Amino acid sequence: MATQEARHARGQDRRHQPRGWDDGRRSNSGQAGDEGLSRALGWFSIGLGLAELTAPNAVARLIGIPEDDSNRRMLRAFGMRELANGVGILAQPRESGWMWARVGGDLMDLAFLGNNLRSHESQPNRIAAAAAAVAGVTALDVLCGQRMAQDGDSQSHGANRLWSRHIDVRQTVAINRSPEEIYTFWRDFRNLPRFMSHLERVDVQDDRRSHWVAKAPAGRTVEWDAEVTEDQPNQRLCWRSLEGADVDNSGEVRFERAPGDRGTILRVDMRYTPPGGIVGAIGAKLFGEEPQMQVRDDLRRLKQVLETGEVTVAEGSMALTHPAQAWPSHTQPALTQPAHTQTANSGR
Amino acid sequence: MKANCWHGKKDMRVENVPDPKILNAHDCIVRITSTAICGSDLHLYNGFNPAMQPGDIVGHEFMGEVVEVGKGVQKLKVGDRVTVPFPISCGSCLSCQRNLFSVCENSNPNAAMAEELWGHSPAGLFGYSHLLGGYPGGQAEYARVPYADVGPLKIPSELDDEQVLFLTDILPTGYMAAEQCDIQRGDTVAVWGCGPVGQFAILSAFLLGAERVIGIDRFEYRLRMAREKCKAETLNYAENDVHHALMEMTGGRGPDAVIDASGMESHGLGLAGAYDRAKQAMMLESDRAVALRQAIMAVRNGGVVSVPGVYAGFVDKFPMGSVMNRSLTIKTGQTHVQRYHHHLLERIQKGEIDPTFIITHRLRLEDAPMGYQVFNDKQDECMKVVLKP
Ligand SMILES: NC(=O)c1ccc[n+]([C@@H]2O[C@H](COP(=O)([O-])OP(=O)(O)OC[C@H]3O[C@@H](n4cnc5c(N)ncnc54)[C@H](O)[C@@H]3O)[C@@H](O)[C@H]2O)c1
Ligand SMILES: [Zn+2]
Ligand SMILES: [Zn+2]
Q: Which InterPro entries does the annotation name (chain A) (predicted)?
């Protein structure tokens, strides 16, 4: 339900950039997934190719075609083709040309199967089935070929996104509640730790000022004071950390009434400027986590809390040990007690 | 407590595991009195779901007595006897409000994983892998049931377990499969697979007004049940050319609606079957769709293809051209059990449906691994295994 766009900005006003121009996480994980897919296809090609070359009879039997001379010759030819394809895919995993060769190969296979069907059966439905099969192309191959081609196009734009000073996160979620309800919940910053996993506590000091305590890797905490910089009730809320923050950060959340009386579309933009200046954007981690993923999961939990009154957990899911879990008080273990109460109380 | 746990392909073990606990205010704990093995469990048993981890408790067709309720539970009380729908649904998201319970937006804590595979996440399911939430299943002595006021259905004491157990899944599944066919008076419906889901789909198609229902399978005992208990005509696909036979039976027009009640492990004979088996074994396609392709090719122009059979990933050689050019409609989904179970309970109470006829095996929970084997291998004329914890 949550969608995300995350970018590593270079100082421009984020809202005026075309959306999705540098969609860090999605294209990264997409690439990894497709590479896995294409590698698997590559190995499949090699395996099948070797089998077709060296054991055409066995392959013929496996796929159920007669083991005659012409079929054996065909299978050997297919074997050569598969082998070349497989080596090509594995040797150049980012090269979509080889993937398209696989797609072509699938069509050849189908034509071959179709011929065989026709030669043995003259029932009209068999021919129809064969024709239908020939007309089909391999979904997986086409998917992989297409996605790799797209990635190739987008890579040229990504060349300069490697380094920047900030981590910017943009996330969206649709919640089946009114903007008023969600704004009211969010405006009371003490509620944020109920769904923001890295937050340990937020103390509200006055209408504009609050003190935030967040968990950092290795059991440490980071803290900051924050102030509300813009507050348009039920529409828009902005805040930023004040001088002396461990991690400079700012956030904006917009509450849009969804069309058709379907609740609210919530848009969140956050920017973190970790100490030490330049961030390796690809390796950027916030509080030990991928920031885009973290905020996406946070918003998913916000939706759960607002729609159902609790954070969904399963014994076998990561969420069980999640600090943002809204434990019912009667089963509440030590988790309610923030582990760093003392540091947190010191304030600033 | 004792629970049936998945440990790998064809490796189920009944083990001692910690009792479930209330984790959220809207949870309840059910002491399970009856639980069944589903065809969907066979997909796990046969290792088709990569998101299973050794030790996962399986099972999603269970009922029993409420023994503990969380603070926020209002309608259920300790002592209530309930059937538990297999999809976990929050009741308050947009999907739940539209009665699309199996695509609840809130109940999958591992939604991010499902979004990678499917674009969006459906509901969490009991005992059905970490992709669908990582919830422990109901082939156990106890289970934690989230959103206790939304899912569980109270069962009057005069009905016994076996009469209502299948309200948790396969009876609504067969019913939804038939309802999706949009059956008009005089319609002919063909059903691929005469397992438990297929039997209930046949039964429901008649309830909803079909004139002819044709059940297709290769196991004679399953076809016999379809004929004798559900009044279907039957076709053995190992002995007949299914397409040809269906055209013959329908004057070349094809059935008005077709139901794929066999799913991603559907079995194929000859070339097409071998082709899918080879591709699946080599990880080139995740799901075999022999029956689905056949069903699409057979249905009449403008007909409905209803798919209760479970698919998980990618299907190869999908005849989209046939779907498009012939104005077909495809309807599918994990069953929105909560949408149907009240109505079906009423029909059971009135004596219009008696789902017990499919039960062939009654075993102790300890014997679950044997139950899987017998059901999977179609031994001993097995149709449905009920386990008694
Ligand atoms: N949509 C849902 O919510 C839902 C719920 C329950 C079950 N299911 C699914 O429904 C399917 C059936 O479940 P079941 O419990 O009846 O399982 P089952 O395994 O007992 O039945 C499947 C039947 O299909 C037959 N079959 C296999 N290949 C065939 C082919 N090519 N043509 C015709 N028949 C063929 C088998 O012989 C078997 O009898 C499974 O995929 C299961 O996962 C879906
Ligand atoms: Zn099931
Ligand atoms: Zn829901």
A: COQ10_START, ORF3, START-like_dom_sf
